[in-house]
Design goal:
alpha/beta; TIM Barrel; 7-stranded parallel β-sheet
Length: about 325
């Protein structure tokens, strides 16, 4: 993909940005759905399943993003993130916890020394509808509190109305406000309507400096469908081929079972390649999947499932 054909400088006009993004090859939606369906039928041998489950656990962003969140809930979730099964120290820790900005300090204190990252949603999550100054203040506050990752949402209204420059420049500004924190850009693919728009939004975010592109807030359906994730993985693969820069992908929402998680791992391996099979480049935004992964892991180890109340509910 000829990324070098577009010079990502803030002086470029909205017209040139539109010309580049609308010049990308169109997505064969039927073909994407068929390929995703085909890859989802791939089986993993029992000997490899344990490794796949451990890898999936290490990729989870354990998340609580509710108005009723409390510091106690965040501390409990952080403890689970660092030690998903206290009875089995061989279970890997998850990649990160994700909280609202006012809960970052609590999560940072609870996770200090564990190696688990602290992500914070920002930029008027989940709507993305706020003045840029408010979005930047939101981001800076989360980073100042210790967040190592920022999950921002794009202005879908601006994107869908064709104001691509506004979306592009807001991502650049938020990236700058992140400092050393990584930036995950949420596309909210359930509102983008077409896979062509998913591809354009993926490239727009990468051109503006995203470290990760993320499907969804988890507040809009449909969320992380396999065809959407496939298109995003193709985008990061082609972007890397053109620029040498690897961008991560995070499907979020709707991933509930071990089978769902493994389908995503197969998709990553077959589409983007084995280099992306790493928490640094692929995450699962799916708190509800962790317990199922732990249950399946225990079954492989002991031959029996634990009771339904064995693990905490998140």
């Amino acid at each position: 993909m000829p990324d070098t054909a577009y010079a990502s400088d803030t002086a470029a006009s909205n017209t040139s940005l539109r010309a580049y993004l609308y010049g990308l090859p169109g997505v064969d939606e039927v073909g994407a759905q068929a390929r995703a369906a085909d890859l989802s039928t791939r089986s993993i041998k029992t000997t490899a399943k344990r490794a796949a489950i451990d890898l999936a656990i290490s990729m989870v962003d354990l998340t609580t993003l509710e108005g009723a969140d409390t510091r106690g809930k965040v501390r409990a979730m952080s403890a689970k993130a660092a030690h998903p099964d206290p009875a089995d120290p061989s279970v890997p820790r998850v990649a990160a916890v994700c909280v609202y900005p006012d809960m970052v300090e609590t999560a940072v204190a609870a996770l200090r020394g564990t190696g688990v990252g602290v992500a914070s949603v920002a930029t008027a999550f989940p709507s993305g509808r706020a003045p840029l100054e408010a979005k930047l203040a939101d981001t800076r506050a989360a980073v100042a509190a210790g967040a190592t990752e920022i999950d921002m949402v794009i202005d879908r209204g601006a994107f869908l109305s064709g104001d691509l420059r506004k979306v592009h420049d807001e991502i650049i500004a938020v990236k700058e406000a992140c400092g050393t924190a990584h930036l995950k850009v949420i596309l909210e693919t359930g509102e983008l309507a077409t896979l062509d728009n998913v591809r354009r939004a993926s490239y727009l975010a990468m051109l503006a400096g995203a470290d990760f592109i993320k499907t969804s807030t988890g507040k809009v359906a449909p969320a992380a469908t396999l065809p959407v994730t496939l298109v995003m993985l193709e985008a990061v693969r082609d972007h890397h081929a053109a620029t040498g820069r690897r961008i991560g992908v995070k499907p979020a929402g709707g991933i509930r079972t071990t089978k769902d998680a493994i389908k995503n791992l197969v998709l990553v391996n077959e589409v983007a390649g084995a280099a992306w099979l790493d928490p640094a480049l692929f995450r699962l935004g799916a708190s509800s999947v962790l317990n199922d992964l732990l249950m399946q892991r225990t079954r492989l180890t002991t031959g029996t499932y634990p009771g339904p109340d064995y693990y905490t509910l998140d």
